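Recall from the previous chapter that SMILES is a line notation for molecules. Here it describes 2-acetamido-2-deoxy-beta-D-glucopyranose.
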Amino acid sequence: MGQVMLLFLGVSMWLLGCRWITHSAEALVIGVNYGLIGDDLPSPDKVIALYTSRSITRLRLFNPNATVLEALQGSAIEVILGTYNEELQRLSTDASYAADWVQTNVAPYASSVRFRYINAGNEVIPGKLASYVLPAMRNLDSALRAANLHVPVTTAVATQVLAVSYPPSQGAFSESAAGVMAPIAAFLQAKKSPLLVNVYPYFAYAGSPRDVRLDYALFTAQDVVVRDGSLGYTNLFDAMIDSMYAALEKSGGTDVDIVVSETGWPSGGGGVGATVENARVYNNNVVAHVAGSGGTPKRPAKATETYLFAMFNENLKPEGTERNFGLFRPDMSEVYHVVLSP
Ligand SMILES: *[C@@H]1O[C@H](CO)[C@@H](O)[C@H](O)[C@H]1NC(C)=O
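With both inputs in hand, we obtain:
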């Protein structure tokens, strides 16, 4: 009896400890992607003012852009900065190009812009550019260290790197991705840097609306939908992240954290389930989920750092749902309201 009581007390203290940690040190974990594929978007200084006025303290920028980086100076917003996929080959083979990249895109701003991560490539694994990713990461890491800039270097992957994602504990990289992902996992593990993953329950739902429950995708299911050993999943977002954790563990990345570099839901464009109401529900629930309860069933102690996609509807993206992921219209009015700083 005494031991059971002690165990109970111990677990309660531990739970309290976890809640305290997630609520103090990592109280605000939401960021928003700033995509620029539109010809009607507001100027970067207006955009950064909008981030600030909505208390959005993290931003992901897909490619270096001097105007945006200048607008970010002094803003206290933390920034994930990506390379162009087209420059991965050069970055991987030419150390001086990587040094120039850092001198052009990071060093001039480093005293007034808070760089959180640099990502070499977005969603190029598997594929013909995949083999350039790790050498590009290495060259960027060396160049940053040579410049005395301490910014973790990583890459952003889609969940398409997985061959198996269900149930989450069976998550495994595909054969074509595994050869590239294993050494990347080792690099990230050694550097204690996270892997960026783009996580879209929407596409899983839209691809098989008969098999994937909408409430499971939207965080509105009341009960466990997927039971996986001792773990229960009430939402697809956590299940997708945990399948990626399982794959990382099998590839030597046992301690690598996952940062969700993109997630979102389209508010229009004709896709299955692409409505303003679903987008509003999804985005509000994902924010509440990561800001409130913290992590996933597999990694409950630490809130999942998450970046919504995206700030604006972008009119030069492919027609359809792709143009309709924005929280805001180009005139900076809300497409729907999201509580971004709970
Ligand atoms: C940087 O962003 C500005 C503002 O959106 C845009 O006009 C410009 O073309 C961008 N520059 C590059 C190099 O992408």
